[in-house]
């Protein structure tokens, strides 16, 4: 991947390139910010710059011997087969201690093509407790020439002992124009309704915009916007929401539907008075809680969409919302 295709985060690039141009580059880096901002893409591009050597041809990042990536494995053997067949597959919830130890065994040798090696952890939020403790040993005594790039979506969930051993680079939401450019590069040819809806719920996150667009939830988002603005006294809009999600949505589609509802609430905050903001804040908190419960409980999709619709209706500036 060429860095010219990475959009935004100029300050993060300035900090990184200034550091690696020096003689004492810090060995541990935390790339922190909400999910979907492009931190993992930044990590891959930064790793490619780190390991490059003048006059030495560099293989693609995916097969580079000096760029090691830790991320959750397929959930089970069936999901691993889907991965091997090039199909979408589900992941385990955590990065295990065995995965960290396997990487550490590879760090006992010197880098292959040059003086430096990069280890990307995507994301460090998902390290199980034993894996964090194992990683700490490498951060405390890093092998010569090895640098760690930790992608982190929620910095507060990372142990202080890990944070204290790393340089933190914060990633901020992109402008709407930058998100639009990223979306057009990643998914050219989107229909107008889907593109408009994806940008409306992105909140500065290209990843969120793309995930939404891939799930084809434009109709659902339009219904969200109508409910939160006008309410839904006769339940007709909530009934339409149940149809918009589909009969058998997978976990990713349900997550995208909840996130789209949450961002619809966020987008409405600037358009209401103090009482309206209080209702929206309550709906937002309940949607966040629902997002955490959805992967654990086997919700009926239609009932889940009805629940989302009811939360949005409770925040509408109507009698229903005032109850």
From TrEMBL:
Keyword Transferase: yes
Regions that span the bilayer: none
GO CC entries: DNA polymerase III complex
One GO molecular-function entry: DNA-directed DNA polymerase activity
Keyword NAD: no
EC class name: transferase
PANTHER family cross-referenced by the UniProt entry: DNA POLYMERASE III SUBUNIT DELTA (PTHR11669:SF8), REPLICATION FACTOR C / DNA POLYMERASE III GAMMA-TAU SUBUNIT (PTHR11669)
Gene3D superfamilies hit by this protein: P-loop containing nucleotide triphosphate hydrolases
Biological process annotations from GO: DNA-templated DNA replication
Extent of the signal sequence: none
EC numbers on record: 2.7.7.7
Top-rank taxon: Bacteria
Region named Disordered: 55-85
InterPro entries from the UniProt entry: DNA_Rep/Repair_Clamp_Loader, P-loop_NTPase
Designated name of the protein: DNA polymerase-3 subunit delta
Keyword field: Nucleotidyltransferase, Transferase
Natural source organism: Novosphingobium taihuense
């Amino acid at each position: 991947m060429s860095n010219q295709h990475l959009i935004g985060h100029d300050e993060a690039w300035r900090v990184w390139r200034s550091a690696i141009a020096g003689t004492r580059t810090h060995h541990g880096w935390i790339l922190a910010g909400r999910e979907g901002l492009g931190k993992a893409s930044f990590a891959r591009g930064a790793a490619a710059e780190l390991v490059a050597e003048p006059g030495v041809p560099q293989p693609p990042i995916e097969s580079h011997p000096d760029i090691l990536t830790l991320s959750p494995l397929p959930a089970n053997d069936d999901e691993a087969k889907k991965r091997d067949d090039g199909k979408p597959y589900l992941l385990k919830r955590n990065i295990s201690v065995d995965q960290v130890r396997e990487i550490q065994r590879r760090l006992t040798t010197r880098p292959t093509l040059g003086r430096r090696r990069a280890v990307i952890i995507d994301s460090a939020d998902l390290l199980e407790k034993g894996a964090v403790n194992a990683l700490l040993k490498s951060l405390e005594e890093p092998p010569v020439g090895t640098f760690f790039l930790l992608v982190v979506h929620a910095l507060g969930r990372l142990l202080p002992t890990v944070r204290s051993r790393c340089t933190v680079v914060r990633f901020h939401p992109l402008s709407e124009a930058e998100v639009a450019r990223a979306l057009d590069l990643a998914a050219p040819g989107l229909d107008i309704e889907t593109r408009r809806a994806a940008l409306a719920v992105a909140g500065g996150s290209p990843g969120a915009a793309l995930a939404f667009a891939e799930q084809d939830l434009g109709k659902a988002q339009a219904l969200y916007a109508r409910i939160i603005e006008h309410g839904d006294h006769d339940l007709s809009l909530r009934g339409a929401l149940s149809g918009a999600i589909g009969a058998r949505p997978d976990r990713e589609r349900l997550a995208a539907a909840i996130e789209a509802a949450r961002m619809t609430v966020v987008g409405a905050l600037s358009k209401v008075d103090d009482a309206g903001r209080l209702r929206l804040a309550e709906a937002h908190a309940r949607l966040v809680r629902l997002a955490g419960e959805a992967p654990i409980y086997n919700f009926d999709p239609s009932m889940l969409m009805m629940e989302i619709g009811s939360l949005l209706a409770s925040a509408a500036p109507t009698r229903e919302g005032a109850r």
